[in-house]
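Tokens in:
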């Protein structure tokens, strides 16, 4: 069974509270999502394997640690996942980036895939799938499905979101128990339109100023 972690670091919680506020504008929202993503990358990468390497400091030889595991691919679910990418590459600059385009039908809440473009060596990589919102879980589940269809293994995937609903967490964990799941907040419930309550509204619209 993969991990399920609520990232309750005080800085993450503080910044998340700021962007939940409906009065916050696009610029501040976008900058803060990026900052939160950087803090999340620190937490999500905590279990990356390291190995011993011998180096020479100005004082002499020493054995120290360096990263040893798979290289990273970040896969944002478009659109809103894009807002998290730069914050993660600030910490993991060599990560390759893939894209999965997905929109939710407003009536049925079913996700529809419209674009997939992944690094050629994606099956060899540790994959961080990112999307600010895990609501019904449909988009996240289909994004993992799109990667599995292309040969990726769930055990090599981590899904990171800012806000989740209990319904989405359950659906995602039931569908893909081996994928590690990280969220900054587990909110109360979904409303009848499939929005997370209290949530932060429509993440894509708030990031890109489309409403
Ligand atoms: C939002 C969000 C997730 C999805 C979550 O995207 O960014 O991808 O909804 O909902 P779910 O868990 O019920 O699938 P949306 O479909 O609004 O597209 P957008 O990012 O283009 O705005
Ligand atoms: N997508 C969003 O952007 N916000 C929600 O609350 C649910 C789905």
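Residues out:
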């Amino acid at each position: 069974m993969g991990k399920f972690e609520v990232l309750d670091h005080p800085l993450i919680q503080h910044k998340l509270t700021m962007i939940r506020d409906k009065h916050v504008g696009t610029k501040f929202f976008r900058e803060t999502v990026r900052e939160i993503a950087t803090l999340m990358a620190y937490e999500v990468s905590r279990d990356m394997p390291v190995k011993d390497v011998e180096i020479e400091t100005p004082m002499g030889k020493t054995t120290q640690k360096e990263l040893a595991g798979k290289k990273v691919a970040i896969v944002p679910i478009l659109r809103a996942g894009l807002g998290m990418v730069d914050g993660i590459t600030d910490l993991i600059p060599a990560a390759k980036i893939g894209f999965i385009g997905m929109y939710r039908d407003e009536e049925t809440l079913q996700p529809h895939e419209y674009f997939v473009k992944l690094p050629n060596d994606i099956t060899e990589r540790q994959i961080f799938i990112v999307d600010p919102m895990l609501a019904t879980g449909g988009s996240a589940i289909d994004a993992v499905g799109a990667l599995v269809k292309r040969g990726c293994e769930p055990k090599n995937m981590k899904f990171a979101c800012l806000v989740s609903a209990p319904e989405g967490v359950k659906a995602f964990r039931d569908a893909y128990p081996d994928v590690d799941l990280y969220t900054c907040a587990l909110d109360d419930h979904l409303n009848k339109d499939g929005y997370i309550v209290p949530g932060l509204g429509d993440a894509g619209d708030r990031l890109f100023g489309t409403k």
